[in-house]
């Protein structure tokens, strides 16, 4: 306020933090003085005042990069962890809205106070540990708070296999300045930060910076340098021939905003700044709607004592393994895991990719009830020790189907089978009583040959039957010969007729063999013998031949 009232500045470079921005933005708006911030990244700030210029990548742009990472690995649920400030809450709002567009749920938001103690952080991590979600997105501007968070996560074994941690540029930009023990606790973490193309100008400036200050230059320093040059370039183009400010009052009270001086050339300088475009240390530096133009983001993996580049994200190409500076040909926006380099996940392994969901280590197993009845053991069979009554194995077709369904889920679900039986090993009741246990919350589900009936469907939900679904209809078969007198002959097929005839001939031949030597009726010329073989079995349909047969083998004849 003193600079505006007494020094009569025409532009303000700052504030450095989003939490400090509200007052300075209001001050610049009252005095009509452009406020240019190179480190306040909160997205809602740019809409507070037309005199505020965001010379840093806004959080809304990195939200798109993080959303692309979630899409790439097809995680369906995430938890956001952010500091309790406008910087944190503003980012969380943008992120949740972007993820909801892709049907990604954020069932829980972990908000950590900037003044949180170690016990408070540890308690919050315990909450996350007991949840089933294993994908965490961390957004913090305070690298000290972020360092404490990851040290305690490592202590609680939350940096192990199955977990996914994604950090925004608030922590990623300060990674090089963190202690070795903090970086060691962050192994396998994914992160994003704006990509800055290397150039001879940048190399020369960085070398001079390190020689003078003996520390690395972070990206906010590059934006600050380019912002100063942009303001200086814009100011040279604005000509002023009169006093740059006009007074709104005579009060000398620096806390009285009603008497603050206003800039006559503020609007001209603002327009000049917004239209200035330079080739700065950070690359092509210019503003779009009061914000620094959206940049390409690096996707990084914390490995060893630093980070490893695994890919890039841009608004034109999506996720890519290599940076393409110009979009041409058939390039399209894609998000595919094949477009990224190898990733070291928490726990030290590159494969498999974490599923992002698992039952908490302290969680209970699902209780699956199975019927304890004899009969069709192919459906469900419970093997138990007759002496100890201990269940040895549960098997069967229904069990196999259930096991395959559970194995196909994109996350592990522990469960155990509990036979519905009495202490003596007998069935504890009917199928309805077993299904009722689901309604009473004694079982989480029931597997077996349970028929779907109306009364059962009132107390439990059923899956589709194992048999193929469909509709069948029975109709009367209309045959054109149904009024014929010979309709009774239709079941007698050709094969049946041939078989019957063969047995008749076989019967006649056997009787002839037994009778022709001792019975005169079976003697004569050969034609009579053949005729007797065919005639005798056929004639038995209407005549009794007990007097004709003289052989002593009546049992054999009766058989035939």
From TrEMBL:
It is found in: Membrane. The chain crosses the membrane at residues 496-514, 534-553. CDD domains: PBP1_GABAb_receptor_plant (cd19990). It comes from the Eukaryota. The keyword Nucleotide-binding does not apply. Pfam families: ANF_receptor, Lig_chan. SMART domains: PBPe. It is a multi-pass membrane protein. The keyword Transmembrane helix applies. InterPro entries: ANF_lig-bd_rcpt, GABAb_receptor_plant_PBP1, Ionotropic_Glu_rcpt, Iontro_rcpt_C, Peripla_BP_I. One of its GO terms (molecular function) is ligand-gated monoatomic ion channel activity. Residues 365-555 form the Ionotropic glutamate receptor C-terminal domain. One of its GO terms (cellular component) is membrane. Keywords: Glycoprotein, Ion channel, Ion transport, Ligand-gated ion channel, Membrane, Receptor, Transmembrane, Transmembrane helix, Transport. May form heteromers. Glutamate-gated receptor that probably acts as a non-selective cation channel. May be involved in light-signal transduction and calcium homeostasis via the regulation of calcium influx into cells. This is Glutamate receptor 2.2.
